[in-house]
């Protein structure tokens, strides 16, 4: 899936395609529960992505 997304798809399509892939979320949940330092980093990235994405989307800027 990653190779197809990297070589064939547009970046917006690839972002939506890969965000629906369960292994990404399985890995993130594993890291959140087992590695505290990396867990905080993933949590912070997710929170920043949501906040910045909301601000950009509401001002008609792309964020994906």
Automatic annotation (TrEMBL):
GO cellular component annotations of the record: endoplasmic reticulum membrane
Job of this protein: Mannosyltransferase involved in glycosylphosphatidylinositol-anchor biosynthesis.
Enzyme's top EC category: transferase
PANTHER family named among the record's database cross-references: GPI MANNOSYLTRANSFERASE 2
UniProt pathway: Glycolipid biosynthesis; glycosylphosphatidylinositol-anchor biosynthesis
GO biological process, one term: GPI anchor biosynthetic process
Molecular-function GO terms, alphabetical: alpha-1,6-mannosyltransferase activity; GPI mannosyltransferase activity
Assigned protein family: Belongs to the PIGV family.
Location relative to the cell: Endoplasmic reticulum membrane
Membrane-crossing residue ranges in chain numbering: 38-61
This enzyme's EC code(s): 2.4.1.-
InterPro entries found in the cross-reference section: PIG-V/Gpi18
Pfam family, one: Mannosyl_trans2
Protein name as catalogued: GPI mannosyltransferase 2
Membrane topology according to the record: Multi-pass membrane protein
Organism of this sequence: Helianthus annuus (Common sunflower)
Keywords: Endoplasmic reticulum, Glycosyltransferase, GPI-anchor biosynthesis, Membrane, Transferase, Transmembrane, Transmembrane helix
